[in-house]
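[retry 2/3] Rhamnolipids biosynthesis 3-oxoacyl-[acyl-carrier-protein] reductase: previous attempt timed out, resubmitting with same input.
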Amino acid sequence: MSARADVQLKDFPSLFSLRDKTAVITGGSRGLGLHAASGLLQAGCAKVFITSRKAKACEEACEALNALGCQGKAFSVPADLAKAGEVERLVGEVEKYTDKVDILFANAGATWGAAFDEHPESAFEKVMKLNVQSVFVCCQKFAPLLRKAGTQEDPSRIIITASIAGIGIGSVGEHATFGYNASKAAALHLAKGLAVELGPQNILTTAIAPGFFPTKMASGLMELTGGTKALAEANPNRRLGVPEDIAGTVVFLCSRAGSHVNGSSIVLDGGAIYGKSRL
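[retry 2/3] Rhamnolipids biosynthesis 3-oxoacyl-[acyl-carrier-protein] reductase: success.
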């Protein structure tokens, strides 16, 4: 191949475009899910379905997203994925608007902190169920719509939100997050299994492993482990995560630029897992 052909990338202006795509984001009403939704809409998605447990939060998120002035639209479809049958109901609600889904961002999750001897069995079970089981069920039940959208040239995408707590050891001591740590390690491994199973069906599966982002779920643990200023100073990148870090990564993974990424995980922590700070 000539040098001229090597430098002329195929339609580079559209490399990160998500024009006319349809996305479903669980846990999309705030935090990382909302950051991702904003990026997907601004990258060209035609429909972005926002789901979380609270209907009001979903509606407020969609109102904010639709105020961005994008050509696409955000839709509120509240569901409590921890309850039996809710994923199936969610799929049915989405099918009222579309017969295919290009992107599933499985982001819903929960955590629990307590010392080892006092850590409730019920809390461990709750965290594992939402962070692992419901993610699997979401992928399973949305698979028919993802198959309809995906082709070998343009596969559908599943992105699973894990955490660097699933790579390192997470929080220990008085506010230990044993269930959360185990669940996020399981989420990372689940992504690998789904990548092998669904890849031949034109569905690519990846995971993201964020460190600390100033979100509602992380705020309590961040304060207990020194506060945002101390955590930022301990980070090799000298800052915490910002919305663009999530939005940019998700857009990359869902676009043509990320069409050969399957089964991998992307760590978004500024190098904290290799530094002195422990998450």
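[retry 2/3] Rhamnolipids biosynthesis 3-oxoacyl-[acyl-carrier-protein] reductase: The radius of gyration is 19 Å.
[retry 2/3] clearing retry counter.
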